[in-house]
UniProtKB/TrEMBL annotation:
Leader sequence residues: none
GO biological process terms on file: regulation of DNA damage checkpoint
Keyword Transport in annotation: no
Span list, region Disordered: 1-26, 60-105
Gene Ontology terms for molecular function: DNA binding
Species annotation: Phytophthora kernoviae
InterPro entries, per the entry: WD40/YVTN_repeat-like_dom_sf, WD40_repeat_dom_sf, WD40_rpt, WD_repeat_DNA-damage-binding
Highest taxon above the source species: Eukaryota
Cellular component annotations (GO), alphabetically ordered: nucleus
Keyword tags: Repeat, WD repeat
Family: Belongs to the WD repeat DDB2/WDR76 family.
Record-given protein name: WD repeat-containing protein 76
Length: 507
């Protein structure tokens, strides 16, 4: 490090060659307009240094301030959106300040950590003397998980299996409490049904054949899987078809096939399993009505570009949400859309395309979106429930809760999707690009995850994750065709812990 500083100072002392040398070594120099003596350098050694040009020489130099790269100081990087500072976090909000200080003092820290903290304090003091605002730095907090619901998840070695050969695009649980089956669809049209050896509550399952039953009903990626009941499985594909699998007969039948070769990207039941909304890559949403002997379809052009997902409000059947490649999420009144030009109830612009937009279950009080701008946005949509059908005024939603989250999966990984927990109205799961690999559970309106699932048996990005509708289970799929089954268990709360919490709240 000292040699690098000396080399840098030597180059700075030669103005005629400074620009060429610094550029060649990927070092950028910026001079403060107010303090001509102060210069800043950014180097490949992951540091930003402030120097006093009046005291530099051709020998060894010491910077005024060294600012380490943020992700070296922070615990979780950009995935959780938190930095390194000295904030207290949110946690449970209990305990007094003196107790917190005592706990900090009781923690044994390394010499490196002690020096790092001292360096941060010196940097803050210097920046304050220079008239530079340190509010953002002081506002940053260590990575602290929010209060969770008391469920601890674990991943056993036997709960990871190779289900399909290609990248997984969709995952779904069989909605039964006595039988554990996970379905997944891959890039080339396969649909697999996996029955883990250990079923519900760890009990052994009697599998009539192999643990994974593999079918190929489609030719292109299977974008959506839905169990409308415990006997049928619906699948959609980019090959323009919707198919239904009869679990008893082990046969697939065609429900719908687009005559214009539009690729189907997602699907949701429209109030009843006999009616389906599907989104397509040509910007249309189509309503499939299976109640009549002959299937009826209606096409609605809602976006100029591909629609990635369509979702229906759980209590307001007329309200649907679409997430598009055109960088917008739109809410629509299904009663007023037609085959002609349509106007959304509200348009929620984003900086880049949106992977998905889903209403929270039960009450639809939240709408979560996952975008390619590396943010998770949570919109408070509770006001929609108070809207009358005759109300023609524009809908205004509050500003969303924004969570910085690395969603840049690239071309080889399936795009990250959020998935709500049907058992809880405000909790969703999403994959994560951070190291070590993990799965994150968020609560609506919170900036930090309530839980991060990590395991020695988990070493890849699982882009698609879903909750079981009745049991404490999470299934996820990665881009090599593997499924992982996380099993949850309620933590036991002792009477003493409850009393302590109550006492702290009263005080």
């Amino acid at each position: 490090m000292a040699r690098k500083r000396a080399q840098l100072a030597a180059r700075l002392s030669q103005p005629q060659r400074k620009s060429q040398r610094l550029a060649g070594n990927s070092v950028k120099v910026q001079q403060d307009e107010r303090f001509q003596c102060c210069i800043a350098t950014a180097s490949l050694d992951s540091t930003v240094c402030l120097w006093d040009a009046r005291t530099m020489s051709s020998n060894e130099n010491t910077p005024l301030v060294t600012l380490p790269r943020q992700d070296e100081d922070s615990g979780s990087g950009s995935g959780s959106g938190s930095g390194s500072g000295s904030g207290s976090g949110s946690g449970s909000g209990s305990g007094s300040g003196s107790d917190a200080e005592a706990e900090v003092e009781a923690v044994e820290i390394t010499e490196y950590e002690r020096k790092r903290r001292e360096n941060i304090q010196r940097n803050l003091a210097f920046m304050q003397q220079m008239g530079v605002s340190t509010a953002k730095i002081l506002a940053q907090e260590d990575t602290v998980l929010e209060d969770d619901d008391g469920v601890e998840y674990s991943l056993a070695d036997e709960d990871v299996t190779k289900a399909v050969q290609e990248r997984i695009y969709s995952v779904a649980f069989l909605p039964r409490t006595d039988r554990l089956v996970v379905a997944c669809g891959d890039k080339v049209g396969h649909v697999a049904l996996w029955s883990p050896a250990n079923g519900v509550n760890g009990m052994k399952q009697e599998n009539s054949g192999l643990p994974v039953a593999l079918f190929r009903p489609h030719n292109l990626p299977v974008g959506q899987l839905i169990f409308p009941d415990s006997a049928k499985l619906l699948s959609t594909s980019f090959d323009s078809t919707v198919k239904e699998f009869d679990l008893r007969a082990a046969e697939f039948s065609v429900v719908y096939e687009a005559d214009d070769n539009a690729g189907i990207t997602s699907m949701v039941t429209a109030g009843t399993p006999q009616c389906l909304y599907i989104s397509c890559d040509d910007g249309t949403v189509r309503l499939i009505d299976r109640r009549a002997p002959k299937v009826k379809t209606s096409n609605y052009l809602l976006h100029e570009k591909k629609i990635n997902t369509v979702h229906q409000h759980p209590t307001l059947d007329f309200c649907i949400a679409t997430a598009s490649l055109d960088r917008t999420v739109c809410l629509w009144d299904a009663r007023k859309i037609s085959s002609k030009k349509n106007t959304p109830l509200v348009t929620l612009p984003h900086y880049r395309s949106i992977n998905c937009a889903y209403f929270s279950p039960r009450d639809g009080a939240w709408l979560v979106t996952v975008g390619q701008d590396s943010y998770i946005d949570m919109f408070d949509t509770s006001s929609l429930a108070d809207r009358k059908p005759s109300d023609k005024s524009a809908i205004e939603l509050p500003k969303p809760t924004r969570v910085r989250h690395n969603n840049m999966t690239g071309r080889w990984l399936t795009k990250l999707h959020a998935s709500w927990d049907p058992k809880r109205p405000n909790q969703f799961v999403i994959g994560c690009m951070e190291h070590p690999r993990r799965v994150q559970i968020f609560r609506a309106g919170r900036h930090r995850p309530v839980r991060e699932l990590k395991s020695d048996n988990f070493a890849s990005v699982h882009s698609i994750n879903v909750f079981h509708p009745h049991l404490e289970l999470i299934a996820g799929g990665n881009s090599s065709g593997r499924l992982a089954l996380w099993r949850g268990e309620k933590k036991e709360v002792k009477d003493e812990d409850v009393k302590n919490v109550k006492t702290e709240k009263v005080s």
